[in-house]
Design brief:
The chain is mainly alpha-helical and about 150 residues long. It has four helices and no strands.
């Protein structure tokens, strides 16, 4: 005989402190008739919605990673901009002044060099921002089967 305590211990997986997972029975077959058809339609709709949700989750991950890269590149560009300004402005300005040019022209050259680096970082952010548009989800929801030719 099994007591209530013994039955509870028997339901636990050996060596584990949590109960063993229960085995689920096979899904009941949908009988013929209106209720079977309605149930089948709901099942098909659930599978379709599940596919769209999976696609949106995958694109959200991709967009999240792109956003992380954009933020990281932004911080990197800011740090590089500050260090470039400090280091290059000193070294390059001194070198240019040694060549006989005015200090204002030396600073102007350093500014142009830093703007070129900042433009490169902005270009990279714009390139990553295309992953934030959920293109595959929008294409699926709009009914277009294949990606656009320019992608």
């Amino acid at each position: 005989m099994t007591t209530a305590t013994g039955a509870n211990e028997g339901a636990r997986a050996s060596g584990y402190s949590e109960p063993a997972p229960r085995m689920q029975s096979a899904p009941a077959s949908h009988g013929p008739g209106v209720m079977g058809e309605i149930s089948g339609a709901f099942s098909a709709a659930q599978r379709a919605v599940s596919g769209y949700v999976d696609l949106i989750v995958l694109e959200a991950r991709r967009a999240g990673m792109s956003l992380i890269w954009m933020v990281a590149l932004g911080f990197g560009a800011a740090i590089l901009g500050v260090t470039a300004w400090m280091g290059l402005s000193l070294m390059l300005a001194l070198w240019i002044m040694e060549l006989g040019l005015s200090p204002i022209l030396a600073v102007l050259i350093v500014v142009v060099a830093n703007l070129a680096g900042a433009a490169g970082a902005v270009y990279a952010c714009i390139k990553f921002s295309k992953d934030l548009m959920f293109t595959a989800s929008r294409r699926q929801l709009s009914g277009h089967a294949s990606p656009p030719a320019d992608a």
